[in-house]
Design goal:
The chain is an alpha/beta fold. Helix content is about 55%, strand content about 10%.
């Protein structure tokens, strides 16, 4: 009787698995060794071909040419990544241009363009404090000149005071007002003016403002280039007492002039301002 202990079923399975694993590992190593040998042989052949080309033995090598012309196959995401990598500068420029264009389009669609702009040059608190009412008053009398489907008046406030001591005490603010005033007179945007005599020396009314007597000879409030507002319904319209309206507060229209705006823009804005003033005078009486 053979006393040698026979392995159990689990041990037998383990031995079989170990043997299969060893055989699998041997086959893998054999395959790798064969691939390395073939790759080594290929490199050796390519080196020989390259040496022949360098020595002038042959002009060109089909082997090397086929290697250089090999097509790299990319996945879809690989193609996208490769495209972005090789065109990153152009893509960056295109993205920047797109963002600028998108901003301009958004700004054009959302910004309300004014049909008429009014300069409010008086520094009287009661007048400046009623700027919203003045805005509403002109909105009721303006026409949709720019054809954007909305009637809109823009009020530009530039306080100019009669009191020179007050002007000097706030030198920075006064200087800013003068700069703004000069800029507006270089542009053809604000053609309608509401002001008092404090601005006379600055804007030279007889030179820069239109003679309203020629257009409204029957209007009792017009005197030369100025339409005085004290005795009109202006106080009632903007919601303040008549005593709060300065005696020298006037309404005027600038003459079209050669400045930073085009001649066409000057003339168009001037005509719109005069048309608006006709409607305003009817409400003031």
């Amino acid at each position: 009787m053979d006393d040698k202990k026979q392995p159990g079923i689990l041990e037998t399975v383990r031995q079989i698995n170990n043997r299969e694993e060893l055989e699998k590992q041997e086959r893998f190593e054999k395959k790798n060794n064969l691939q390395r040998e073939k790759y080594g042989e290929k490199l050796a052949e390519e080196k020989k071909e390259l040496l022949k080309v360098k020595q002038g033995v042959i002009e060109e090598s089909e082997m090397l040419a086929s290697e250089n012309d090999a097509v790299v196959k990319y996945t879809f995401f690989g193609k996208v990544k490769n495209f972005i990598y090789h065109n990153k500068w152009w893509l960056g420029i295109a993205t920047f241009i797109f963002l600028i264009a998108a901003f301009l389009i958004y700004d054009t669609l959302t910004t309300v363009r004014s049909d008429v702009r009014v300069m409010l040059l008086c520094d009287a608190d009661e007048i400046q404090g009623r700027s919203e009412n003045i805005f509403e008053f002109f909105n009721e009398n303006v026409v949709d000149y720019n054809d954007d489907g909305r009637q809109y008046t823009d009020i530009v406030i530039i306080p100019i005071s009669h009191n020179m001591e007050e002007n000097i005490s706030s030198a920075v603010g006064y200087e800013n007002s003068l700069t703004n005033l000069s800029t507006q007179f270089q542009l053809a945007e604000c053609m309608i003016i509401i002001a008092d005599s404090a601005v006379d020396e600055l804007i030279e009314p007889e030179t820069t403002l239109e003679n309203l007597e020629e257009y409204f000879p029957d209007c009792p409030y017009v005197d030369g280039v100025k339409l005085y507002l004290k005795d009109t319904r202006f106080a009632e319209i903007i919601g303040c007492d008549k005593e709060d309206i300065p005696d020298d507060l006037f309404l005027a229209v600038r003459k079209p002039a050669t400045n930073l705006s085009s001649e066409e823009t000057n003339q168009t804005n001037y005509e719109n301002a005069m048309e608006t003033l006709k409607s305003v005078i009817k409400d003031l009486d």
